Amino acid sequence: MSDDSTAEREQGSAFLPRFDGQGLLTAIAVDCVTSEILMVAFMDSEALAKTRETGLAHFHSRSRGRLWLKGETSGHVLRVEEIRVDCDQDALVMLVRPAGPACHTGARSCFYRRLDGDRLQRISD
User: Fold this and answer.
1) Cα dihedral sign for 2, 4, 10, 15?
2) CA 10 to each of CA 16, 29, 48, 52, 57: distance values in angstroms, whole numbers, following the listed order
3) In this predicted structure, what is the pLDDT of residue 1?
4) What's the 3-state SS for 10-51?
5) 17-122 belongs to which homologous superfamily?
6) What is the mean pLDDT of the chain?
């Protein structure tokens, strides 16, 4: 990448998402009211476009190899209020309004345990 394009990506106003070798970028969903991290997933260009078009968080499911609307079966969608882009445009933070638990386990957040020595300990809600 030239110095000009690096400067534009890092300092400019153009949205120039930088996908990795698998065509993905990291997307972190954060509750827009509580600032709690709800989940981390990956987006490809299709998921990013669909999220921007609908206002609902879409991701690329690596296990299923396809587009995935968060909440497509549970109804626990994530309504995107704002998308923030990191300095080199390879990661996103989405400020969202969750319509129910974000984790497939039923927990409010996928981050419901903490490391305690060599064990995981459930965090109280």
Assistant:
1) negative
2) 9, 22, 19, 21, 25
3) 60
4) HHCCCCCCCCCCCCCEEEEEEECCCCCEEEEEEECHHHHHHH
5) Phosphoribosyl-AMP cyclohydrolase (3.10.20.810)
6) 93
Binding residues: 86-88, 90, 103, 110
Could you read off the pLDDT of 80-106 as tens digits, one per residue? 999 999 999 999 999 999 999 999 999
- First vs last Cα of the chain: how many Å apart? 45
Integer Cα distance of 124 and 47 in angstroms: 32
Instruction: State pTM to two decimals.
Output: 0.90
Convert the pLDDT of each residue in 5-25 to its tens digit: 778 778 888 899 999 999 999
Rounded Cα–Cα distance for residues 37 and 23 (Å): 24
- The residue ranges of every structural domain in the chain are 17-122
Assigned token pair, 75? 């109804």
Q: Show binding-site residues for Zn(2+).
A: 87, 103, 110
| Binding positions for Mg(2+) | 86, 88, 90
Strand pairing report for 25-31 and 91-98:
parallel
